[in-house]
């Protein structure tokens, strides 16, 4: 969940909860996800998984509780100041950009001048090197998810 090159650490949720009016979407939850671990959050549809991820990312303000990344309390930080990346159910790829340019977009936005090596490495890692010049609509759902 945390960016491997940025300030990392455990993801620690303390009493995190979310209500919409009288409706409770997430009951108070304590959870620590150790740094470097692969963690799956399973549960019935509507039980609050996405809302919890959105609170970690800062896209949803918790009604109670706190979010720590390592030693840092990020509960009040806006999303763009958190070292968190989220791949949602819809992949939010740019339809007019090819696969290479979709992957390059974030790096270019960070001001990197030469992105080719990094993009090629990432595409190879997810076995999409051959698809670099295709557009998102030419890929399968799983391939699009790997681009995201
Ligand atoms: N913005 C919202 N306003 C009101 N209710 C919401 C809102 N977002 C989610 N919910 C409700 O909160 C519950 C948890 O939703 P969600 O976290 O998306 O579940 P899931 O575990 O399937 O990802 C659901 O009952 C959903 O209908
Ligand atoms: Mg969901």
Can you tell me about this structure?
- There is one protein chain.
- By secondary structure, this protein is α+β, with helices and mostly antiparallel strands.
- It has 2 domains: 71 residues, P-loop containing nucleotide triphosphate hydrolases (Rossmann fold), CATH 3.40.50; 49 residues, no CATH class.
- It is 25% helix and 20% strand.
- The protein has a 4-stranded antiparallel sheet, with helices on one face.
- Strand 3 and strand 4 form a beta hairpin.
- The protein starts with 10 loop residues before the first strand and ends with a helix.
- The N terminus is likely disordered.
- The site of magnesium ion has 2 residues, from helix 1.
**Ligands, ions, cofactors:** adenosine-5'-diphosphate, magnesium ion
Structural class per helix/strand content?
alpha+beta
The spatial strand order of the largest sheet comes to: 2-1-3-4
Instruction: Please report the total strand number as a whole number.
Output: 4
First and last CA, distance: 14 Å
Strand count, sense and barrel status of the largest sheet are:
4 strands, antiparallel
Shape: elongated
Radius of gyration: 17 Å
Helix-strand topology string = EEHEEHHH
What's the number of structural domains?
Answer: 2
CATH topology of the largest domain: Rossmann fold
The second-level CATH architecture of the largest domain is 3-Layer(aba) Sandwich
């Amino acid at each position: 969940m945390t960016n491997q090159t940025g300030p990392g650490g455990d993801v620690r949720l303390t009493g995190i909860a979310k209500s919409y009016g009288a409706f409770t979407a997430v009951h108070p939850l304590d959870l620590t996800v150790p740094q470097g671990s692969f963690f799956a959050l399973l549960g019935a549809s509507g039980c609050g998984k996405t809302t919890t991820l959105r609170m970690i990312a800062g896209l949803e303000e918790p009604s109670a509780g706190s979010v720590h990344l390592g030693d840092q309390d990020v509960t009040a930080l806006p999303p763009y100041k958190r070292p968190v990346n989220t791949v949602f159910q819809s992949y939010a790829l740019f339809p007019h950009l090819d696969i290479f340019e979709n992957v390059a977009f974030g790096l270019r936005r960070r001001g990197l001048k030469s992105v080719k090596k990094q993009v090629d490495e990432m595409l190879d890692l997810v076995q999409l090197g051959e698809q670099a010049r295709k557009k998102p609509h030419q890929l399968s759902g799983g391939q699009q998810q790997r681009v995201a």
